[in-house]
Design brief:
alpha+beta, cysteine-type peptidase activity, globular, Peptidase_C48_C, Adenoviral Proteinase, Chain, 21% strand, 9-stranded mixed sheet, 16 helices
């Protein structure tokens, strides 16, 4: 909670679209020591004015200016403690994961553990108005104003529920604040008008099937970084294109990382209701979704953890076999949960939504669907299985594990057929995942260098070069060296002069200029 501090004697209410907003709200706001430049790390702490909605009838639609705050990014450990910082006794029930910490600026008497902390997982959108003069952070879960500690209580709003709040940076620090927030919140959807300097940092370096990968996204492939949805979508799609055997591509549907989020949006109670949200997503499949033997769905758990749900043989659950028909063991319908967490969260909600969605998809799309077939019967046949899979040894590699799971499922002759029917711990270990992170970063830099050299950002067109394609496939499927052997690093991606490139279309590597190097830890 925010430590006690003196609020202005009369709270200031400001219309969010007032022309004089910036001068009124940033007056007297301290300035940070320096501004970020493109490619720099985020600031350790930003200082802004904090504003919250005033829901009273007389002031509806206005924002209440509650004071100047210092904001920092903190990581809560598995025991609820803040990594590298003090924690109050009230923090013991907090979930592990990153948080934004708000402290009254200039209040040196406040204990650092008594700050308001908002988990980054509940922040879904960042709406920018007037080129950064006001930044709204919209929440997936409403919080009570009394969670704002002294700010909410002294403003008389402790009974209010807040689904957003706003930060107003000093006019000279707009770029620093926006750049830092986008580093801290790589998963959020950014809306509104970004300043030109910040917007340029979001320009796509690569595109694949409509998925854009920016230089900032590529930085997330560095050491000890969590992947966002763009990086995960990009590389999962790349693996499907390059690693999946041709005879398997028609049997596997890989959903977008946004699929489950959209399925469950809008306050729907179950998968049958959520079907309306995504009913158009699979219309282009020649045999429909239920014509796929395997449906792979990436799941984001509260914006802090990724895992993979694989629906095996869904049609066999919806259209039960005839009494005389024997179902082979590998053809058993099931939803298999591949979760690399040492202590995975419950998967029952996700499984229930997927069952309901598939049942509704069958009822709406398949003329043979029986009116008497109830969801309860489908649930009995489409059982959930928590697979015994390799586990991560840290708190940030879950996204890489998902990519490695997919690589293994597509390259193994038996993994998909027997998925969830036997232990899978032997597939690979943490060492291979750490190896894959380095290779994925190298692939991103390689493709970026080639995109810049050719002035072509479409990865599908770039991969028409057979030599480049072979390099990428090798990086996606290579294994770490055997213990005792040194790993042979591939050549650094380069920006090569066109005159050096052979006419056959193969890629050379003579220069040492590497764009956007992925950060590493000491």
């Amino acid at each position: 909670m925010l430590a006690a501090a003196q609020l202005p004697t009369a709270p200031i209410c400001i219309d969010s679209d007032d022309e004089g907003l910036h001068q009124a709200s940033s007056e007297g706001l301290p300035q940070a020591s320096s501004s970020l430049q493109e490619g720099d790390a985020p600031a350790e702490r930003i200082v802004c004015q904090l504003m919250i909605p005033n829901r009273s009838a007389a002031r509806r639609g206005r924002m209440l200016l509650v004071g100047s705050v210092s904001v920092a990014h903190r990581l809560v450990g598995a025991e609820g403690g803040c990594v590298g910082g003090a924690v109050s006794s009230r923090d013991t029930a907090r979930q592990p994961g990153p948080e934004l910490e708000f402290v009254r600026h200039g209040d040196s008497s406040s204990a650092p553990g008594l700050a308001t902390r908002v988990p980054t997982r509940v922040i879904s959108h960042m709406a920018v108005t007037s080129h950064g003069q006001m930044i709204f952070l919209k929440l997936l879960e409403a919080i009570s104003a009394d969670q704002l500690g002294a700010f909410g209580v002294e403003a008389g709003l402790e009974a209010e529920l807040l689904d957003e709040f706003a930060l107003v940076p000093h006019e000279s620090e707009v770029r620093t604040v926006l750049t830092t927030l986008r580093w801290w919140l790589p998963h959020v959807v950014v809306q509104g008008s970004l300043p030109a300097a910040v917007a340029s940092e979001s320009a796509a370096a690569l595109r694949l099937d409509g998925i854009a990968l920016t230089g900032r996204d590529i930085q997330l492939l560095g050491d000890e970084r969590c992947l966002n949805d763009s990086v995960l979508d990009f590389f999962l799609r790349l693996v499907m294109h390059l690693v999946a055997p041709d005879n398997l591509k028609g049997d596997v549907y890989l959903a977008s990382t946004f699929f489950f989020q959209k399925l469950t949006s809008g306050g729907v109670a179950n998968g049958e209701e959520g079907w309306h949200n995504v009913r158009r997503w699979t219309r282009s499949l020649p045999r429909g979704l239920l014509g796929q033997r395997f449906v792979i769905v990436p799941i984001n758990e509260q914006n802090i953890h990724w895992w993979l749900a694989v629906v095996c043989n869904p049609r066999k659950a919806l259209q039960p076999p005839l009494p005389s028909e024997t179902v082979k063991v590998g053809e058993t319908p099931r939803i298999v949960c591949l979760d690399s967490a040492q202590e995975p969260p419950p998967h029952c909600r996700v499984v229930a939504f997927l069952r309901g969605y598939l049942w509704r998809e069958w009822r709406e799309r398949d003329p043979s669907a029986s009116d008497g077939e109830k969801l309860e019967k489908v649930t009995e046949r489409l059982q959930a299985v928590s697979a015994d899979v390799p586990k991560q040894a840290n708190c940030y590699d879950c996204g890489i594990f998902i990519i490695e799971f997919l690589c293994h499922l597509l390259t193994s002759k038996t993994a998909l057929q027997g998925l969830g029917l036997a232990p899978h711990r032997h597939w690979f270990g943490q060492e291979r995942v750490s190896h894959r992170r380095k290779r994925l970063c190298w692939v991103a830099l390689l493709l970026t260098a080639e995109a810049q050299r050719r002035s072509e950002h479409d990865v599908g067109r770039l991969l028409q070069d057979e030599h480049l394609r072979a390099q990428v496939v090798a990086a996606l499927t290579s294994k770490p060296p055997i213990a005792g052997q040194e790993e042979e690093a591939p050549e650094a991606p380069t920006l090569e002069h066109p005159s050096k490139r052979p006419r056959t279309g193969t890629m050379g590597a003579d220069s040492e200029d590497v764009p956007w190097p992925c950060p590493t830890t000491a």
